[in-house]
Amino acid sequence: MKKLAFAVTAASGAAAVIANHEADASTQHTVKSGESLWSISQQYGVSVDEIKQSNNINNNMVFPGQVIEIGGGSSQESSSTSNNTSSGSSHTVQSGESLNIIANQYGVSVDEIISANNLNGYLIHPNQTLTIPGTTGTGGSGGTATETPNTNTGGSTASDANLYDWGQCTWHVFNRRAETGQPISTYWWNADHWADNAASDGYTVNNAPTAGSIMQNFEGPVGHVAYVERVNPDGSILISEMNYNTPPGTVDYRTIPASQASSYNYIH
Questions:
Q1: Fewer CB in 10 Å around end: N or C, the chain?
Q2: How far, in Å, CA of 172 to CA of 26, rounded?
Q3: How far apart are CA 166 and CA 172, in angstroms?
């Protein structure tokens, strides 16, 4: 009888260890188009707050291609993280950071970070780990970053001040271009005038989307503009925008099918 009790106790202890290990383990989930924090939480049987805490997310927004941790306890990251590697440093993206901000921090160019991480656009997300090429120390050393060069030949109207109406599509695109080191004019007026005014300022305008370009169309009474975050392998494009399917001031992401992508103007 004593031997049986010992066997049961040992088995229970082993089960407890296994259960604890499983509770600590985490699963990576890549966000798909149309998913939300709520739908993902229902899929894995956890709460929205648990997902937000584990990934240091301070709002309810996720976007296609973002990788999030499910379970495994909360993340210990509370500030920008840098680790040395043989070929450079690694950096964990924090909320609010852009490639331009990170490039300036480490004294490298945006293009170098994009190349080192095989990125096909300027879109990054919190908790994403980036390789910082050619650096062996902490951020801030190595001189001044070389920003992604503008493709325009004008440049005289590029401005640091965003004078577009707050929360509108034009306001958002101006900010995204500034964040990625590609400033534009603050005087292009409503979205339906952007292609003509950009061309007058020397920017390239065509129907071929590239990451970082501005998509422009004539929808609605004053047109619409959006920022091209990524060109997908199938020719579709991921854009970020405001005041289209969301209220002013709220960023939304939308995928434009390849069959429609060439029907819009793109400012480079």
A1: N
A2: 35
A3: 8
